Amino acid sequence: MKAAVFHGADVGLKIEDIPIPKVGADQILVKVAACGVCHTDLHYIEHGVPTFKKPPVVLGHEASGVVEEVGGEVSNITQGQRVLIPAVLTCGKCMFCRTGRENICSDMQMLGNHMDGAYAEYVAVPSKDVLELPASIPLEEASIIADATSTPYHAVKNRARVQPGDTVVIFGCGGVGMNAVQLASAAGGYVIAVDVNERKLEWAREFGAAQTVNAGKVERVSKEIKKMTGGGADIAMEVIGNPRTIEEAFDCVRSGGRLVIVGFTHEKISISAGKIMFREIEVLGSLGCRPVDYIPLIRMVEQGKIDIRKQVTHRFALDDIQKAFDVMKEGASLRSIVTP
Ligand SMILES: [Zn+2]
Ligand SMILES: [Zn+2]
Prior knowledge:
There is one protein chain. By secondary structure, this protein is of the alpha/beta class. The protein has helices at residues 39-46, 95-98, 139-142, 150-159, 175-186, 198-206, 221-229, 243-252, 273-278, 291-302, 321-330, and strands at 2-6, 13-17, 27-37, 57-58, 63-70, 82-85, 88-89, 109-110, 122-126, 131-132, 167-171, 190-195, 211-214, 233-238, 253-261, 282-285, 312-316, 335-338. It has two domains: 2-147 and 289-338, Quinone Oxidoreductase, Chain A, domain 1, CATH 3.90.180; 150-285, NAD(P)-binding Rossmann-like Domain (Rossmann fold), CATH 3.40.50.720. The radius of gyration is 20 Å and the shape is globular. One zinc ion is lined by residues 38, 40, 61-62, 87, 147. One zinc ion binds next to helix 2.
């Protein structure tokens, strides 16, 4: 089968012909319909972030497809079913999994990181993790639910806990950020989207942002937000992973508000402990999405509360995957998918 194989940062991605993965007893083989192209992949390919599985490894963690084959012990899934594969697979056995916090599983396996992923014609995954997709959801576009939509779903619902009427500032309108805009707005929030790209801010308004701020055109974003909200937002979400933006997002929050960090950075941030204490500000992290949240999320897509079709702005054949990364770097795409 054809696959985009990562050979380490010095070589990058190569389209190769490799064997179709063998299916274990509790696994299924999925014929990949589409796989979303995520910024995380760019971190492996260009920014030296190591993959857990030593290269060569097939990347791609945002996939949907049709079940081609099931292992001998699989009883919950049948051949021909349309499925969504969550980006992160959980062990189901550790303390976190057993207490309903599977998204911070101590033995999590991420597709296209710990194991071969879905920039390929086929991928083998444990049957317990996949979700059935209703016929009304388009199969290819559904792939982006696996990460770009599910990660902000958990962030908005369980971490930011957006309530109707809350003012919510969202920093970064990429694939994940745009869904945070859409989800926070669907939850009744008054969303202010922040980015430096005018096109993305335009999209953010289409996806429910009430107001936008171009961070490149104002002196201090927090000053603007305080003006717009009469003293500060109830909630700020940072979906970039930039230490300076995280600090700026903190400064946007009113007393009693909360900051949710969704973007990843390994760098340190500097925020005032005194402000956290005296103004009772919550600072929270948010990682991935729990299995239990996928079903209501898929229902929201089915009910049209979350639009996935409009988010897929580009689609590429597997051979042209490099072009997907190029448009991502130019900031020209909202979400690209490859269709192997
Ligand atoms: Zn991703
Ligand atoms: Zn676990």
